[in-house]
Input
Amino acid sequence: MNLLHQPGSGGTTLAKQVLWDMRKTLRCAVLTGATSDITAIAKQVIHLFTAGGQGQQNTVLLLLEDERILENLQDAIIKEIAERNITTHMPVVIILNCVLNGVVRQHRVFARVDGKEIEVCAEQRRKVWKSEDVCFYLGFTIRGPVAYGIQYPSHHGHVFYSGPVRSCTTCANVMESTNWVQVEPVAITKEAPMFSTSPPGRYECRVSGLRWVCKDHVSLQYQFSSWEPHRAMMKSLGYKQGGPLLDVTVISGELEEVQLPHFACFGDDPSFKEKVRVLHVEDCGVSIEQVDEVTRFHVKILHPSFSPKGVLVRSGFPVKAHCDLLLYQAKTAFLTLHAYLVPCDSSVEQNVQVGEDIGN
Ligand SMILES: [Zn+2]
Output
């Protein structure tokens, strides 16, 4: 039985109330905590069913708060019944479930009900960033069925990424553009290029910070490039690195706009737009280009052509940088922490991560 409800509307409380009301008729149980050992859970369900021996069997009413295990649990219970040669004339278990399974495909959410897929609205669009199996609470509004509290089971811990949380007070007045759909790129390894495909919309890669706007379906491939071959030239022209150097290839489709991430903090300097350029690396050489707009964390380029590009900041005056503090716990007997203060640049952070992986 699936109990459909909005989170916070008391669905789980209602389910527990049902258990309480039924406690004298059925053997009621709530499954909480770790649910990794499905076989052990199935054994406990059967133990509860047969408690008191033959002739004392009674149906178990089990409240499940994690639907992901439902199918495996059903199989495990059937297996346990067969193994223990249980014969009965009544249902062994009634599973009461508060969460639904579904899937996200191309930024659309589908609920799986009775083997069918039904499209539902996502309560929060920003949570629909990856094509993958999900689970959620299903509710109903005037718009029709709505998926609340979408979770990606494969991403425990950092599921609801909503863009970098930055709280720099120095540049709080600098314009920032919002409403970007966060996407997770596909990457085989950390060093391999990242891939993203997207329908029309505004997207931000949560790994690289690259943003793009497209009116049609696009497929992109991108990876971090090294600034090293360009350093001497940049220095002679009076520029320094202001973000990662990104090598982007448009595989199909066309981009209206890209935004390259930068880590410079411009505070209340009104002339900052004059100090920002983009390095464009081509086969025939490199060029330094004007930008269309500078926002708090990004630099905007309209109708971009590609090959590696990265943000430059004019040198010769002090520029503050947004930094991240990275902490790693070394795999040693005693607690050893490695701390890195690095500019907010995903390529730098990735290098630190690679170094830590090797070191450990
Ligand atoms: Zn700042």
